[in-house]
Amino acid sequence: MASYVAAVDQGTTSTRCMLFNHAGESVAIDQLEHEQIYPKPGWVEHDPMEIWERTQDVIKGALKKAGSSAADIAAVGITNQRETTVVWNKKTGKPYHNAIVWQDTRTDKICDELAKDGGEDRFQAKVGLPLATYFSGPKIKWLLDNVDGLREAADKGEAIFGNTDTWVIWNLTGGANGGAHVTDVTNASRTMLMDLDGTHWDDDILATMTIPKTMLPEIRPSSDPDVYGYTLPDGPFGGRIPVCGDLGDQQAATVGQAGLSPGEAKNTYGTGCFMILNTGTEIVPSKSGLLTTVCYKFGEKPTVYALEGSIAITGALVQWLRDNLKLIDNAPEIEDLAKTVDDNGGIYFVPAFSGLFAPYWKRRARGVIAGMTRYVNRGHFARAALEATAYQTREVLDAMNADSGVPLKALKVDGGMVYNDLLMQFQADVLGVPVIRPKVAETTALGAAYAAGLAVGFWEGEDDIRKNWQMDHTWQPSEDDAARTTLYGQWKKAVTRTFDWLD
């Protein structure tokens, strides 16, 4: 009998494979970064072929570390950076262009054109999303309009689209030799092309964006007993395993956090920061700058929806300080550097590198550092960078409280930054509620594993997931309210300085 479920987590900066046992414990992990490509200011790309190579390498690496083979794996789940857009030839398996990453802003003019008829909220009632460069639909249109020969290939049915989940699943299950061209409802809900109510592609929006429907993958449940396809004996798993779980990374983290009941929320600290509130089977329109999105769909059960607050740059700011400014040599050093000072020295770092996401949705904003004096040193830069993550999370939480009408009493957190004690304590201080880290903080991969495992009966039901969740640490907010009053007020002032930086 198989002992593990495998999860492939294809993220913005790296790809990893993790194996989980029935208790939801990680028994092996292998991870590799891939190149971040910046052709022009505001443009961000990845090489899909490099991502597929890294995917194969980490699968083999995880199996080797666990001393396991395909016979030990019950099922495979996929989770991924959402909205990152790949278009490739289904006969050759070769991409027509680098993947356009979710942070990329090149579709700004396309969004402006679309907004001329109906404004920024033109499609929001149908898809739950404002017009923004963030989402896949405008990226597909840009590729069709700008890559020589692509529109003709799409019209012939040769060019197909997917977010990176679709790209990985297609390659894992056969690629050009019959690979499954599928996505799940959570990823489809991030394209701006799927009708939330019916979870199907919207013909009117496709016509407006001039995107052929034949390019799009089949929409399937996030946990699918009918199985998307099977891995190949000559593939990286070395055997035939059902691929039957697929969740966008933030929805996967919600499942991994056992946020399976309406009113439960989590925040994931990664390249960006993403807070999701489970709203059950009800589609809740946001009036406060949040996204209405699909949370998950398990088999034939009703679709579960969520409100989401998306922040573009959090962990990516630490990477920027490391790679662009050479302020630190590796990401964990940021905490020690920040601890060399007692406060931020009066500076506020608003990292609107790709505009402002929730709750503002200002595409023309750009990053600023406000409050600079000669007193400021490297430590203040580090501390202000960490504080920016906490302040942005507070803005999203305020919006979520306003939309739901139910103030959160605690926040579950996950992702790489939750091991930064200084940040997590400041997060509790600025929110005024406890911040709770689970024992398995890498819940994104765990959520994908749960989706796949539920489909094949490795876990019997949602109660098994709830039983596996265990608390590791809780940060209680300080009695001093300066962080959530005075400092937060200064942050809000700094944010306004980013507005409309681009004409």
Notable traits:
alpha+beta; 16 helices; 23 strands
How would you characterize the overall build of this protein?
32% of the residues lie in helices and 22% in strands. It has 16 helices and 23 strands. The strands form seven sheets. The protein has a seven-stranded mixed β-sheet with strand order 17-18-16-15-21-22-23. It has a six-stranded mixed β-sheet with strand order 3-2-1-5-14-13, with helices on both faces. α10 packs antiparallel against α12 and α12 packs across α13. The model has no long low-confidence stretch (mean pLDDT 93).
Task: Please provide a brief summary of the model.
This protein has 16 helices and 23 strands. It has helices at residues 48-66, 108-115, 124-127, 136-146, 150-155, 164-172, 185-188, 203-208, 249-256, 315-323, 333-338, 378-404, 421-431, 443-456, 462-468, 483-496, and strands at 4-10, 14-20, 26-33, 45-46, 73-80, 85-89, 99-100, 159-163, 182-184, 194-195, 200-201, 218-220, 229-230, 242-248, 265-269, 273-280, 291-296, 304-311, 348-350, 368-370, 411-414, 435-438, 471-475.
